[in-house]
Amino acid sequence: MSEKDVYAQAKGQMRLSERIATALPGFRGYKEKELRRESDKLVRNHLYTKLSGAKDGIRSIFQKITDRRYLDVLPDMDRLTAKIDRVTEKINHASYGYSGFFDIVKVKEENLDRMIAFDNQLIDYVNALTAVVDAFKAQLVAGDYSNLKDQAQVVADKLEALEDAFDKRKEVIMGVTQ
């Protein structure tokens, strides 16, 4: 899934009445901005869905570790669970590039395009996170309970990298960075 694919697909699915309305002066730009925002929302929904799966995996890992009574790892897993909850909701409820008519800072189309591209790059971070969560879970399912703290730290590092990248999103929207 790439940003151009999502935007082009959304643009291609416009109804006839919407296509006619885009011929009106001023409406075309408005509609194209809305399509960009909706495209970005689709990308972020995809991120949220994948993160929710990783969150379920972390909870499953936490449960397996708790059942085996590895008490020294429980605080790490508790922090990890809280952090993935926070990051997941941060992504789910992030701004989608809207600026009101009277707002001082206006969000331009090229910044919206950068925002879509940026959110698409976050898919790589989420994929890396889900890969380490899946590997950790597979290790436990196989009965290998060695290096639990190290494995939890690997997951925490991937989650930290995702959150750090996501926190730069507002700068991208405003056109401060690329």
DSSP summary, beta strand count: 0
Strand content: under 5%
Secondary-structure content class: mainly alpha
Largest sheet: none
What is the radius of gyration computed over CA atoms, rounded to a whole number of angstroms?
20 Å
Structural description of this entry:
By secondary structure, the chain is mainly α. The chain is built from seven helices and no strands. The chain has helices at 3-12, 16-21, 27-67, 74-92, 109-141, 148-167, 169-174. The longest helix is centred in the first third of the chain and has 41 residues, at 27-67. 28% of the residues are buried. Residues 98-105 have low confidence and may be disordered.
Keywords, separated by commas or semicolons:
about 180 residues; mainly alpha
Please render the helix and strand layout as text.
Elements: H1 3-12, H2 16-21, H3 27-67, H4 74-92, H5 109-141, H6 148-167, H7 169-174
